[in-house]
Design a protein that fits this description.
single chain, 6 strands, 18 helices, 69% helix, two-stranded antiparallel sheet, mainly alpha, 448 residues
Amino acid sequence: MKIKKVIGNNRKEILFVLVCFVLYFSWSLIIPFNNAPDEGMRYDIPFFIFSHGRLPQGNEAELIDPIWGQSYAYYPLLSYILSAFLMKLVSFFTISDHILILSARFAGVIFSTLTSVFVLLISKKIFNKSLPAFFFASLVCFLPQFVFSTSFVNNDPLVIFSTALTIYSWILCIETKWSVKSCLYLSFGLSFCLLSYYNAYGYIICSITLFFISFYYQKSSTLKKHFIKCFFLVCFLCFLLAGWWFIRNGLNNNGDFLGLITTNNLAEQFALPEFKPSLHRTPQNSGYSILEMIFTAYDGGIWIKSTFTSFIGNFGSMTMPLPSWIYKIAKLVYAIGLISFMIFFFKNKMYKQKKHSIPLLVILFVFLLSILFPFFISIYFSYTTDYQPQGRYIMPMLIPIMLFISFGISELNEYIYQKTKKNIIYLFYLFPIISIVYSTVMVSSFYL
């Protein structure tokens, strides 16, 4: 009876998750192998684990790219471990190369479907009505680039899932004054962040910031003692769940627990001359300033424009952009949402409001940080190391920025509804739906 009741009360949510699963799985079937950024190099890792039954050291010959001289095996491997596990399960029935690739990709489908679940949970906490809640979920889960990331072997689906779980845990922590349950959610969220990719690590700093903000605004000494216990509980669980990877890296790579120095040294040794890190051309060593790199032409493109368009959707190896009208509508929708958010933030004096004794302003500051961290990390690496103006590197900002946009449009809708009794939010709903339907048809017609 309880299951029937849960299903009955959440039919729309269950249908939404099922639609997401079918969409993500369909894309993983449609995209040909290695028609996505570095999928060949990435697939080598789960295939190595599947073939050898162990984790790679990173410097195995079959894992080193002959052009770049690098290996992805020095980066966190959790997503690839799941891919290898799924490959092993499928191998009991077939060892077809094509089926093994699809099973490796299925890890991304799983993580992205779980993301849709937590996005809905977040939306229920933030929005009082189902219309803006599902609009927010649609903006996130139907973003063409996010859907594309589920279709090939890579870490991005795990990255975004880890941010969804972490943000949901933040909301629980604020609501429950850091209950043990909320701390468990946070521990798993941060552990997934640690084992996903480095562009998600800003969420660790944001979580620490949120903790100290919460601690500061508690008046009770008993609660403060409880908060300290929770802090050490989260630290302990994160170390237990994710620490093994960094200890292993440190032991294998002479103390390089992140693997970045070792990866760089490997590339210096094995890359083709023009791709060696010491000789590789970057905006920094080309004499550009950071602002020049961001806003002016470099290497055939403009960083901010290329990053934005590929955040919305640019498929293949950045060779299959969407039509310009989709990008223009995206700019319009996002601009209306963000401007509306700022207007209603001041109009409703949200900066004076509190949520569970914590000023809303400082909570929003943490969410703003979670947007800025991946953005500036992407700028830094493009400027100093490898010019890669790709939206997938700023994907950790997806959920918080869509929250701001959705909230702004929701408030605008409420304002207009009071004046005209019309829900304009239906017009905005068209954008995520049309963009993903168009993208799916475009990709299907190109590859099938």
